[in-house]
Structures are given as structure tokens and as C-alpha cells.
Write a structure and sequence with these properties.
Layout: H1 2-44
Length: about 50
């Protein structure tokens, strides 16, 4: 029974770590895409710059 509990704890910890990495990667990718979009907008419409 103790082995089963330790396996479940390991599975839960691994799931949380992998989920955190995936969410962090998604946030960083979204920020990068947003920055690229801003740069492209400035090149296409230079008069709209504030």
C-alpha cells in the first residue's frame, strides 16, 4: 500500500511539473507572437505609431 501511495504522489508531482512547464511555454510563446505582431504592424502602418 505504501508503494502505491508513493507512486501516486510521484504521478501527481510529475503532472503538476509538466503542466506548469506547458503553461509557461504557452505564455512565453504568446508574448513572442504578440511582439512579432507589433513589429509587423509598425512596418506596415508607420503612421499609426503612438
Amino acid at each position: 500500500m505504501d508503494v502505491l501511495k508513493s507512486v501516486f504522489k510521484f504521478m501527481i508531482a510529475s503532472t503538476l511539473i509538466v503542466g506548469g512547464v506547458l503553461i509557461g511555454g504557452t505564455v512565453l510563446a504568446a508574448k513572442k507572437v504578440d511582439g512579432i505582431g507589433d513589429t509587423l504592424q509598425q512596418k506596415l502602418h508607420p503612421k499609426l505609431q503612438d
